[in-house]
Amino acid sequence: MIHALVLFLAIQAGGAQSADQHQEAGVAALKAGQVNDAKAEFKQVIELDPTSAPAYFGLGVAFMQSGDYGDAIPQLKKALDLDPNLAVVHKPLGYALLGQGYAAEAVPQFEKAGDKVGLGIAQLQTGDLSNAVENLQTAAKSRPNDPDLIYYLARASGLLSKQLYDVLLLAHPNTARANLAEAENYAALRQGEEAEAHYKAALKQNPDLPGAHLALGQFYATASRWKEAEDQFRTATKQEPGNAEAAYRLGAALLQDGNAHDARVELERANHLLPDMPETLVSLGKAESMLDNAAAAEKAWKRVVELEKAGPLATQAHFGLAAIYRKQGKTEDAAREMKLYQEAKLPALTAK
Amino acid sequence: MFRKLLIPVLLLSPALSVPTFEVSTPKGIDFVLEHSPTPKKYLIETMGGGVAFLDYNNDGLLDVFFVNGGKITPAMPLPLSFDRNNPKYWNRLYRQNKDGSFTDVTEAAGLSKAGDGNYGMGVAVGDYDNDGYADIYVTSYGRNILYHNNGNGTFTDVTAKAGVEAGGWSESAGWVDYDNDGHLDLFVTRYMEWDPAHNKDCGGYFHTYCPPAEYPMTTNILYHNNGDGTFTDVSKASGISKKSRSLGVAFNDYDNDGYADIMVANDALQEFLFHNNGNGTFTEVALDAGVGFTDNGSPVSGMGVDFRDYDNDGLADVVITDLARQVYALFHNDGNGMFSYRSMETGLGVLTAGSSGWGMRLEDFDNDGWKDLFVVQSHVMDNVEQVTPSIHYLQPPLLAFNRQGRFEAGDPGTTRPVAGRGAAFGDVNNDGWMDVMETAFDERPLLFKNRGGSAHWLTLALRGTKSNRDGYGARVRVNGQSQYANAGGSYLSSSDKRVHFGLGGAKTADVEILWPSGIHQALKGVQADQILEVREPEKP
C-alpha cells in the first residue's frame, strides 16, 4: 500500500520550486524507509505552502509508517479538508482511525475507499455483524489464505451466531428451537448433562424438529454413546431421507457396532446423495473390508487418496490399502501404501 | 500340524446359567494401594498397582501378593526414598487359609521392605530355578527385585546375584522360556526416561499428568536364564531393544511354530509383536502382521494386553486395553502371520468406547467354552472430568461375555467406580470358576468371587519335567478350545498359572498338550469338574 501512496505523492508534487523539491525529497525519503527525513521534508512543504493537501497526506502517511496513528489522523483529515476529492486519503485514514479504536468514524472512510476488509473489521467492531460478515466474506474470496482476514470473518460469524441465538432465547424462550440452541451451547461448553436435557426437551416439544435428531446423535457420538447415536441418526434419516450427512453418520455409527452390512447400505446411500465425500468413502471402505469385500474396499480407499493427498483421511485410506495388499500377498503394493501412509501422516505429526 | 488336530467347539449346553459375582475384600486382607498423588502430578503416581495370584507354599490354595507404591511428596527430595521401610508402603503377601480367609505373612516371608528408592509397580511369578516353588519378580521405578522362594515359606532377595535389577522405570514383566531350554527367561517392559527433576506440568490451568510423548522413550529388557541362578541381558542380541514406551506384555505362540512370541502394549505408539525366530532372536513384525495400529492406522494408548484365542480357531488373538475415546483393540489372528483389527465386529467398540482399561484377561468366566473379557478400569488422569466431563476417572470393571465370538455386557457384581489398575485372575476357592482380584488406588483390593453356575469345567495344573517346571509355553487344547500356559498378560500382574477350561455341557474332555520341549501328550475322556495335575512325559 505504501508504495502506491508514495508514487501518488510523487505525481502530485507541484507548487513553488522549493516546495516541489521538498515534496520530492519527502517522497524519496518515504520510498527509502527514512520516515523521519520524510516527515521533515513534508513539514517544510507545509511551511512553504500551507494549502498543500499532498504534503499533509504525505506527512500522515509518514506518521502511519512509523506506527503513530494518533498523529497521522489530523494530517490526513487536513488533507481531505484542503482537497475533498483526494480519494486516496480515505483508506489510510480509515486504518488510522481503526487503529485508534474509532471504528464508527472509520466506516465511511472505508466505504468511500471501497475497502471491504477495513469496512468489515470496522463493522465488526461497531456491532454491525451481518454487514461485517458480508463484507469480509466478499474480501475473503480474493484473499482466501489471509489468516487475519479468516480470523475476523470467523469472529464476526461467531458473534453474529451468538447474537442471533440470544435473540432466539430472549424473544422465544421455552420453544423447541430455543431448547435446541441451549443444547448446542451446553454441548460446546462440554456440559453434557445440561446439553442432553435440552436436546430431549426440544424433541419432546417437537419430535420432528428439523436437525434435532442429527444434532443429538452427534452429541451422543462425541460422547462415544454409539447405540444412542445410532437411534438418533436412524430417526434423522427417516425424517430426511435425502440428507447425505444423516446417512453417513448412521453408517458410521453402525460401523462402531460392527454392523458392517447395514453400515454399507447407509454409506452407499450417502455416497449416492453426495458423491465423493472422503469421510463417507473412508467408512465405506471399512464396511467393505469388514465384509471381506477387498475389491470394493480398495475402490473406495483409492478414490479417497485421489481426493485427499494428505491428512487423516488419506492416512486411513493408505493404511487400509496397505492391509489389503499385505493380505493379498502384494508386498510391493503394500510397501508403497505404507510409505504413502507415513508421508500422509507426517504433516499431521509436524503440525502437532 | 497342531491346528489340524482341532475338533469343533461343541457339546456346549444351550441353556447354561450365567454366573454372578460376589465382590468384597476377603477377610484378612488389609492392604491399601498407596500411590501418593501430589499436586505436582508425578507420572509414576498413576501407574502402579500390580497383583499376583500364586501358591507360594504349594498347599493347593492361591495366595496373593500386592505391590505397593510408596510415599511421594511434592518436593521429591534426592535421594529418592519413597519411605518403603514404612509398613504403610510395604508390598504384601497374604497366605490363603483353608476357610478362604487370608493371613498377612509379609514379614515372616521376608518380603517386608522393598528397598529405598523403589516405587513399586508390577509383579511376575514363575519358578525360574525349577525347584517347584513360585518365585517373585517385582518391578519398580528404581530397582527391580527378584525374590527366590526358599521352599520354607520365606524368600530371599537374589537380585544382585541374578543380575536382573533393570533400573529406570519398569512396568509389566513376564516369565517365558523363549528358547525352550527348560529355564524361564524374563521379559521386562519399561515405560520411559523419567525422573522427578524433569517432570512436566501439563494441562494448563487444570494441571494434569503429561501425555507420554512429553518424555523420551526407553528400551525393554530380555534376560536369558543361564540355568545357574544368573541371567544375561540379551536385549540387544535378541533384537527386542527397540525403543518405545511399553506398559504391558503377554506371550503366546501366534504362528504355532513351537516358540513363544511376545506381544508388547505400547502407550500411544505402534504396538510391538516380537516374532520368535527360533534361534534366540526376535523380529518385530507388528506392522506387517497388522497388530501395530488400529484399522485407522492410529496408535492406541496400550496399557494391558492379553494374547489368547478368543474365537476358538486355535490361533492366538490380541486384546489391548487403552484410554477412553479409543476402544479396546482386538486383533484377530487370521493365520499366515496376519491379524485383522476386529474391535467393532466383536462388539468391543460399543462396549468400550467410553472406558479406560488396565488389568485384563480373556478367560472363560461362565464356563461355556468361550473366553470372556474382564477389564479393571479407570482413566489415567484423576482430574479428567475437569478437562472432559463425559469421561470419568473412577470406573467399574467391564465384564463382557463372549457369545461365540461377539462380546456382550455382563454383570461383574458391582457398579461402584474405583481407580482400578492391576488385575490377577485365578480360581481362588478351587471350585472351577474363575475369580478376579482387582487393585485400586487408595482402596483395599476387591475380590470378584465367581459364584458359579451349571456348566462343567476342567483345570489343568501343568508340571513340566523336560520343559520348565511351570509348563509355561505349553499349548493346550481341550474340546476344541486352546489355551497357552503362562501367568503373564494383564497389566503389572500375574495370574493363576493353572490352565482353565469351561466345558459347557460336556462331562468329559479330550486334552492335548504340546509342551515347550516338543513333547505331545494326549489324554482322552478326562472327567470334567476337577483340577488335574498333568506331568510332562519324560519321553515323547
Explain what you see.
- The complex is a heterodimer of chains A (352) and B (540).
- Chain A is mainly alpha-helical and 352 residues long.
- Among the domains of chain A are: 97 residues, Tetratricopeptide repeat domain (Serine Threonine Protein Phosphatase 5, Tetratricopeptide repeat), CATH 1.25.40.10; 43 residues; 45 residues.
- Chain A is built from 20 helices and no strands.
- With 540 residues, chain B is mostly beta strands.
- In chain B, strands 14, 15, 16, 17 and 18 form a five-stranded antiparallel β-sheet that branches. A four-stranded antiparallel β-sheet of chain B has the order 1-29-28-27, with no helix packed on it. In chain B, strands 2-3-4-5 form a four-stranded antiparallel β-sheet.
- The longest helix of chain B has 5 residues.
- Chain B starts with 20 loop residues before the first strand and ends in a 5-residue tail after the last strand.
- The chains are: A mainly alpha (352), B mainly beta (540).
- The interface between A and B is medium-sized, with 29 and 25 residues.
Annotation keywords:
heterodimer, A: 352 residues, Serine Threonine Protein Phosphatase 5, Tetratricopeptide repeat, B: 540 residues, mainly beta, five-stranded antiparallel beta sheet, 36 strands, disordered N terminus
Summary?
The complex is a heterodimer of chains A (352) and B (540). With 352 residues, chain A is mostly helical.
Shape of chain B: globular
Task: Write down the Rg of chain A.
Answer: 30 Å
- What's the architecture of the domain at 18-114 in chain A, going by CATH? Alpha Horseshoe
Unreliable runs of chain A, pLDDT <50, ≥5 residues? 348-352
**Helix segment count of chain B?**
6
Q: Mean pLDDT of chain A, as a whole number?
A: 91
Distance between the termini of chain A: 36 Å
- Give the helix tally of chain A: 20
What is the CATH H-level superfamily of the domain at 18-114 in chain A? Answer: Tetratricopeptide repeat domain
Q: Give the CATH topology of the domain at 18-114 in chain A.
A: Serine Threonine Protein Phosphatase 5, Tetratricopeptide repeat
Determine the strand fraction of chain A and express it as a percent band: under 5%
**Major β-sheet profile of chain A:** none
What's the β-strand tally of chain B?
Answer: 36
